[in-house]
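C-alpha cells please, single chain.
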Amino acid sequence: MELIGKNADSSGLYRIYRDKGAMVTYTGSSEDELFELARQPLIANDTYTAQSENDWSTYGTNDHQCDVHFQDPFVRIDGVTYELGPDIDSGVDTPVSAAELDRA
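Here you go.
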C-alpha cells in the first residue's frame, strides 16, 4: 500500500492509500487509531471532465497528486482520472496505526 493523500480537519484525520487497483481511505481521531472507511476499485476513465477545477479537493502527499471530486465518484491520481467503484468491505474493523499502514 502506498500513501497518496492525507488531510486533517474538524471532522478528523484522513489518510488515502493506493492498494493495487483500489483507493483505500482511513479515518480516525489520531495517527495511532485509524479505521478503514472505504476500499473502492479504481476504474480508468479518460472521458470524464469536471465542470470546474474548483470541484476537486486536493489531498496529495508523499510526492503524489491526489484530487478527489467534490460530488461525482471520480479521483485523479498523478494526472490519471479514475472512476471510483462501489465500496468493497474488507471485513477489517480493528484500528490500525498510520505507522503500520505505511509499512504495509
